[in-house]
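Work Package 3 (structural annotation) set out to generate three-dimensional models for the target panel prioritized at the project kickoff. During this period the team completed the workflow that converts sequence records into discrete structure tokens, so that structures can be stored uniformly alongside our sequence database. As a representative example, we reproduce one entry of 557 residues exactly as it appears in the project archive.
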Amino acid sequence: MPDQPAEREFMDYDVVIVGGGPAGLSAAIRLKQLAAEHSKEISVCVLEKGSEIGAHILSGAVIDPSALTKLIPDWKERGAPLDTPVTEDRFFFLGKAGRIPMPHFLMPPFMSNHGNYIISLGNLCRWLAEQAEALGVEIYPGFAGAEVIYDESGAVRGVATGDMGVGRDGAHKPAYTPGIELRGKYTFLAEGARGSLTKQIIAKFSLDAGKDPQKYGIGIKELWEIPQEQHKKGLVLHTMCWPLKNNTGGGSFMYHLDNNLVVIGFVVHLNYPNPYLSPFDEFQRVKHHPAISPYLKGGKRISYGARAITEGGWQSIPKLAFPGGALIGCTAGLVNVPRLKGTHNAMMSGMLAAEAAFDAIGADRQGDELAAYETAFATSVIAKDLYRVRNVKPLWSKLGTVLGVALAGLDMWANQLIPGGFQFTLKHGKADNETLIPAAQAAPIDYPKPDGVLSFDKLSSVFISNTNHEEDQPVHLKLHDPEMPIKVNLPTWDEPAQRYCPAGVYEVLRDEDGSNPRFQINAQNCVHCKTCDIKDPSQNITWVVPEGGGGPNYPNM
């Protein structure tokens, strides 16, 4: 029998921030900077579900340093880990065996990576955390924000961390420790794409009313050490088309860091139609392409990870302020899809929210809507950045890669040359969970077996993600109807969870004669990518936080 939760202790702060990524840490730093500038005290805490800051951070990443420069102008002198400026930018359309280069003069100037840096976003966040702590920010890694706390008026009052030491059956183990309430005058949600608390807040306050559904991709990434003669420090390489079909958006990226390190990754837009598609296996295929494989041969794969990416852009940004708090960063959907960049916007949004909250607290307010944040966002560089690429994703999705990307390029040039660009904004249409066609109408995909040299299986990949969960804890992947996977998803879509998950979490098991299908959840494999919460066609899976500190532990990712 599940035990009753124990009474929680609580801690009071001026601002509580859920998520130790670039948005949350930038907000924390900016709050403390403002307090110092105005000779005032402000208490700020950052809650991070990973075992340490950066443990769950996964991104390409090529960063536009403009927001970092605004936040910490002397970041170079302080030793920020931006050590690899982009020196060369290549873009290819791939066929099965060949490639067609995309001349850079065809792209608008804002698509250039000149002045940007190839980084480990996890390492940047670790550095930002050091800057925040030096200013007096309290950071609590290993504690997951599990529940939103409301006051008597219905405004957000803070969050509660998850209980520790609860068995799979809900019973308290000997080491049971109840969660703690972290109460704030304002609470910032900086959970990244498809945040579990953000979902609840958006629904409760109807923050997405009148907006297009949020769109997503799944990004899968590996870190390699390659032979020195194959390494091109500062090289950025992007591809699209093969191995994906024309009706499926996505592509690969390869970034050459220093010390013979290379990141190679693949993004698949989650509005794909074929239930037999496996994003993980598409990634394994692309590494064998002759435009990519020569860089990796003789190299060693060091790490692996996966994470959902917000792709809805301008049309899908929810209302950012709610009673008692704000959405910041990728949890609000601020990624610029064609630029493959969101860190600069995430950081800027954290800074804007911090400035609004600081002024509100200085005026003895708390628990209200930060209307000043919404106003500042509407006229910010973030809004300009996202508005001018607003039609790229819809064109790509509606018209396919070949025609859609060509017209998207024309639309971006219009936004470059004409104030406001073409005066229309396309709609996204269906949510990503609504786009699968029945398996009976789809073509199965025969993926080659991994060779263990360039391509690998899911379980060996999860192993090098350093993923670990306490096995005797409640399963954090909740099925609303436990019978749905076999009764509905299997006959209709051949249960796509066994393919869209990049970590082998979901399996359909059968007896030796193929009978008695049953659905198995290997929750200990979960890398917290959130793809299941997004793509499940029955919306039967809800991702909630596991015990704090569980999940992947990404080094240099």
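Residues 11-74+122-213+315-387 form a domain with the FAD/NAD(P)-binding domain fold (CATH 3.50.50.60).
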